[in-house]
Amino acid sequence: MKRIYFKGLNEIRSLAALSVLFHHIELYKYRDNIESLYNTRFLNFISALGKNGVFVFFVLSGFLITYLLLAEKTKMQSINMKKFYIRRILRIWPLYYLVIFLSFLIVPYFSLNIAAFEKEKHYYSLILQLDNHFYPTLLLFLLFLPNLAVSLKKYVVGASQAWSVGVEEQFYLIWPQIIQRISKKYLIFFLLAISVLPYWSKLSKLIVPGSEKYIEIMATFFPIHFMAIGGVASYLLFYFPDKIQKIRNNKLLFFFNTLMLILFFFLPLNKIILGFIVALELLFVTEEKFKFNLRNKILDKIGKISYGVYMYHPLVMYFVFTFVHSVLDIQKEGIFYHIVIYFLVVAITLLISQFSYSYFEKKFVSYKNKKYTVIPSGQKEE
After folding, report:
1. In this structure, is the dihedral angle defined by the CA atoms of residues 323, 326, 329 and 332, taken in order, positive or negative?
2. How far apart are CA 225 and CA 238, in angstroms?
3. Is residue 42 a part of any domain in this protein?
4. Do residues 360 and 90 make contact, with C-beta atoms less than 8 angstroms apart?
5. Which long-range contacts (CB under 8 A, 24 or more apart) does 287-294 make?
6. Treating both helix axes as pointing N-terminal to C-terminal, what angle do 200-207 and 212-221 enclose, rounded to 10 degrees?
7. Is the pLDDT of residue 123 over 80?
8. Is 382 among the domain residues?
9. Closest CA relative to residue 22, chosen from 42, 8, 3, 2
10. Can you tell me the mean pLDDT for 112-130?
11. Domain span including residue 58
12. 231-276 residue pLDDT tens
């Protein structure tokens, strides 16, 4: 069976992960009253960069998962739910729970027992101690409800970025059921309807006044509309490849869409439109024959370990900022300080992520591919 692999997605993953990392470094500095981009004309750009990067992940996830599920349903006449869920568990859970362990046990130990860490202000500013909030918050994270914990302002140093992983897991829980049960004829209408989920509040307000706030809460807590937007792109690519190919070959549309994508990253504009722009960009970057395709070996390698980059970098930041401030004692003013911070955070995050992928995550990935693959996908391991 032919392996399904979209070249260009790793590069997009790497850019999204690095965008989140960049945003968090600047936010950390800003909250610690250190000069950052938050104090410049780039405020709108840097304040939205983190979530924009996450939204790119969501659209990409919806695009890839929907395409694979459609391929499996078409080829096998059904979706093997058990194998799908086991594949997701083997890819997501090991690293997720490792980071939860480090964030709930190791970080509090350092903060409570080492003076340098106790003094250090840090990203998300909350160290959970053994108080009334510890166990309820831990339970939410263990149950893959970190997005609920964050919405309740229960932040955890090193783990709060996992809110998006919780959203992804909740998406994985329901999406194969939807693809399985809805026919090709009606699926596109469902995907389009979910794509505009935030706008449901306006309609619900007319029907049942006061109900709009529940739609708004749902769209914030579980922004599945971004996955649905990616699903729209994969649906069209899967069922209408010839027609979509005409779009993918349009160089003028590519340049215009790329320009709009850059603009939306710099300005606080409509996120649903951003989602569709990202989805269209995915159709371009995955077209192998397109002359201006995004292909880069370094970005491809970073994209391969992007899950680790996303999950580890807040922990790395916590230790790097403390080390630079308390051990190196570098003055916080001047370009040298910022160079040291960025170099250490990026370099250590990439090294840890590569080590984690090669000697920890890859074992589960290989087992997943060997035992539970239905439709071969992804880059073939060497």
Report:
1. positive
2. 20
3. yes
4. no
5. 287/245, 287/248, 287/249, 288/7, 290/248, 290/249, 290/254, 291/251, 292/251, 292/254, 293/7, 293/8, 294/8, 294/11, 294/12
6. 160
7. no
8. no
9. 42
10. 57
11. 9-372
12. 999 999 999 999 999 999 888 999 999 999 988 887 777 899 999 9
Convert 162-179 to b/e letters by CB count within 10 Å (16 or more is b): bbbbbbbbbbbeebbebb
Q: Does residue 238 contact residue 230 with C-beta atoms inside 8 Å?
A: no
Domain contains 2? no
List for the chain the helix, strand, coil content (%; round to 5).
Answer: 75, 0, 25
Q: Which two tokens stand for residue 316?
A: 């790395």
pTM above 0.85, yes or no: yes
Residue 136 corresponds to which amino acid? P
Residue 330 in tokens: 């570098």
* Token pair 């391991």: residue: 381
Residues with Cβ within 8 Å of residue 255, at least 6 apart in sequence:
none
In this structure, the dihedral spanned by the alpha carbons of residues 48, 51, 55 and 60, taken in order and rounded to 10 degrees, is 110
Both tokens of 262, joined, read 């850059």
> 200 lies in a domain?
yes
Neighbours of 370 (CB within 10 A): 8
* CA atoms of 92 and 307, how far apart (whole Å): 9
CA 250/CA 14 separation, integer angstroms: 25
How many structural domains does the chain have? 1
Residue showing tokens 């395709």:
293
What is residue 4's three-state secondary structure?
strand
Q: Tell me, what's the pLDDT at 331?
A: 82
Is residue 326 within 8 Å of residue 119, measured between CB atoms? yes
Instruction: Tell me phi and psi for residue 4, to 5 degrees.
Output: -90, 115
C-alpha distances in Å from residue 36, one per residue of 32, 46, 218, 322, 326: 10, 10, 33, 17, 20
Q: Tell whether the torsion through CA atoms of 140, 144, 146 and 147 is positive or negative.
A: negative
Most confident of 20-34, 106-120, 165-179: 165-179
Written as six digits, the tokens of 34 are 């250190």
306-323 helix and 335-356 helix, angle to the nearest 10 degrees: 140
